[in-house]
Amino acid sequence: MVRNTVVSTCDALDPVFHDAQRDALWTWLQLEPDSYIYPHYFVVINEAGVSVTVACFQRIQLEALKQQFQQVECFTESNFMYIRYKVGLLFKRLPGTDVWVTPKDMMFWARKLLQLHTMEELIDRFGYDFITSFHVDLNPLFMHNAFPKNTLAFNALKNAVLATDARYAHYFMDSLSAYARQLTPYHQIVQEPVQDGISPHFDLRVPHVVVSYMSFLGCTQEDGIVCRQDVNAFDCCRFYTIRIKIKADGLVMFHPVQGDANETSLVGTVVHFGEALLQLEPFSIHVRTVPIKDQVIQLHFNKPPFRVIQHYLSAHTLSICLEQDHWASTGDKLCSFHGQKLVLRLIKTLPLLDERIQPDLLVNPYSLFRMTPG
Questions:
Q1: Distance (Å, rounded) from C-alpha 204 to C-alpha 188?
Q2: Which principal EC class is assigned to this enzyme (predicted)?
Q3: Predicted pLDDT of residue 148
Q4: In terms of C-beta distances under 8 Å and separation of at least 24 residues, what long-range contacts does 281-290 make, across chains too?
Q5: Would you list the DSSP string of 63-102?
Q6: Second label for 7, Cα 20 to 30 Å away, from 39, 121, 253, 294?
Q7: What is the phi-psi region of residue 81: left when phi exceeds 0, alpha when psi lies from -120 to 50, beta otherwise?
Q8: C-alpha angle 325/329/334, rounded to 5°?
Q9: Secondary structure of residue 159 in the 3-state scheme
Q10: Which pLDDT score is estimated for 136?
């Protein structure tokens, strides 16, 4: 359950500008793309970025945009303007105003309209209930069957905090996310955009594969799916965030490996300039420590190859973000927008439907009866 929260219901599942000149949001924004080779101002709409002129960037009034579309997420950071207008965003009315906000633009509008400049000031004014109730109520019956309910409560609080600001991920343990790095020939445009100078920025591409519903080898279970081995539509890039607890009485420095770690597992080296013995306690089972000498410890991650993207070192915690290319393999799970998950099995060849058609995926027909309606 969510409290005092509404879900946006704009008239498209994931609005993209196939014909920008006829789109209501485009008509209101009237973006002016910047043709300069090194643009300085950008407007990001539903994760698609457009470089715009300075005059265009300064002309867009976000308060008027909120008044016009109401359930639209918008804020600025430096020379970037972010706008999201799609189905499924969670909004709450910012107390004392007529503006509806999401966890992502909440602080921007709190600073702009209420002069609340930090999360602590926002919590002092409206309480923790305001920022956590975007997602879920914490179960008050924690004394009954306490362990699983406390776990659910912690996860609910974690999700609410991360929705407020992803930078707070440093305070949690392992986290993993993935995205499609490169489009493949399987990723086809859903609808060809009009060549009006702006619509091509918003091409919506999805994997276009041939699916056959039948039982075959590893696809005898209702949650099984067989994929032809040469289909690369589901390859992705993973982000791991690993965290290590530090106990030290002096200056601590971390020296990450540079570039791709290839097949080696070395993440970097932690050096301590102090008298007490340096102690590292990884939160992840995939991280191991190797002492080199006094006050020098190497960190290894047992899932190479990877690249160290960034790290954050505080007085007591070291957080490291790793990037890793992942090719779809047997045992992976594929999940649809509505939450149906299937376990993947790769195989070299699949049976021909006829002389011309060879399926890319085989899905067990029994899975149709357990899918979520909608």
A1: 8
A2: transferase
A3: 45
A4: 281/244, 281/245, 281/246, 281/247, 282/242, 282/243, 282/244, 282/245, 283/173, 283/174, 283/242, 283/243, 283/244, 283/245, 284/173, 284/174, 284/242, 284/243, 286/174, 286/240, 286/242, 287/242, 287/244
A5: HHHHHHHSS-EEEEETTEEEEE--TT-EEEEPTTSS-EE-
A6: 121
A7: beta
A8: 90
A9: helix
A10: 42
DSSP string, 187-253: EEESSPPP-SSSGGGG--EEE---EEE---GGGGSTTEEEEETT--TT-EEEEEEEEEEEE-SSEEE
As a whole number of angstroms, the distance between CA 76 and CA 29 comes to: 15
Helix (H) or strand (E) holding 256: strand 251-256
Q: Note if the bond before 305 is cis, omega within 30 degrees.
A: yes
Residue 19 pLDDT: 66
Residues whose CB falls within 8 Å of the CB of residue 104, separated by 6 or more in sequence, listed in order? 73, 75, 82, 84, 163
Question: Which amino acid type is present at position 279?
Answer: Q
Query: Taking the chain (374 residues) in consecutive chunks of 10 residues, what is each chunk's mean pLDDT?
Result: 59 58 80 81 83 92 92 90 82 90 90 91 84 51 42 59 59 61 77 75 77 71 81 83 89 83 80 92 88 92 86 87 86 71 83 78 73 45
Contact 210, 361 (CB under 8 A): yes
Q: Are 149 and 140 in contact (CB under 8 A)?
A: no
Query: Cα separations (Å) of 168 from 116, 163, 165, 241, 290?
Result: 19, 9, 6, 12, 28
- Burial of 372 per CB tally in 10 Å (0-12, 13-18, 19+): exposed
Instruction: Give the closest residue to 213 by CA, choosing from 54, 52, 362.
Output: 362
Task: Give the bridge partners for 49, in sequence order.
Answer: 44
Instruction: For residue range 61-79, list pLDDT tens digits in order.
Output: 999 999 998 889 999 988 8
Tell me which residue of 105, 115, 155 sits closest to 132, measured CA to CA.
155
| Whole-prediction pTM | 0.54
